[in-house]
Amino acid sequence: MKLKNSLMLATILALPALAQAQPVTGIYVGAGAGGNIRTNATAGGLTVKTETGWAAVGSVGYGFGNGFRAEIEGNYRYNNVNTTSLSSGGSTIARSSAGSLATYGAMLNGFYEFSLTGFGLPSIFPYLGAGLGYGQNWWNRVGLSNGSATARSNGTNGNLAYQGIAGAAFNLPAVAPGLAVTLEYRYYGVLDSSQRFNVNGTSTGINRSYSPTNGNHSAILGLRYNFGAAPAPVFAPPPVAQVQTVARTYLVFFDWNRADLTDRARQIIAEAATARTTVRSTRIEVSGHADRSGSDAYNQTLSMRRAEAVAAELTRRGVPRAEMVIQAFGESRPLVPTADGVREPQNRRVEIVLK
Q1: What is the CATH code of the structural domain delimited by 2-19+237-354?
Q2: Quick one: which of 15, 108, 180, 273 has the most CB atoms within 10 Å?
Q3: Is the pTM higher than 0.85?
Q4: Residues 97-108: what's their mean pLDDT?
């Protein structure tokens, strides 16, 4: 019973590091804003150049705990017109600088986040994504003038929208579990849609419809909150006398399907190597374990790889291999019982027991 309490205590002590190393799990919300550069809208001699504007996005999504996540997004982009010109036969026949262009719509996005835990950066998650949806182009008093007549284009037209996203999330567990700052680049486009210029007066060649191109480059700074990230539990450390009466136990945790050591894992192994001399240990049990997300045979091999990785680090820190008993139990001895196929972080571990 005392050994079980010691195991649970070691698990609780390791949870803050685990929480930082996990990708998005469960429901999350996000919002952001930044700058937007709209590519020149061109069609049939018409060119609309815009100034640098702004963009805003908001989303609700779900993370599957393995790096993949999906979300629904709403977006808005706005740019003032710099110059609108109409050319024919190589000559400009009309020009203006009036109006603005805006784009707004809804998207369904998919993402994959990459863990940098193996590089010593457990709180940074780069990601790539893509989305499809519907976008509306809003032309607000975009003008053309040739001196004798002035044309205006007003109204909205919609079509299929698409985007590509590259970004990174910077987790802030010290501020709030689940909170992250995000920085993204987005390319957003809407398939060509017809837009008409209406003339006040008489002017040949202006009063007609165009189907201009639509594209946006945006840099977005945002915040994301993951409701599935649980805070580190609060616990009361047991009396020192009770800990001294049981074998010293340390738990080393691993990422899913990995056997490499994180910086936190190496720190725990170093503590175990130091404690070996203070408790006068004569034998060290190094036991590898796996969760139930793979086959029995694969998990048996994976748990042995984890045990060997810990044993190698203990040897590097001065523990003779002859003092170690290295063993692997696969998924047969879970710390947290789960159904088959469940990825449970607390079961991906190696137990170091000093005897």
Answers
A1: 3.30.1330.60
A2: 180
A3: no
A4: 92
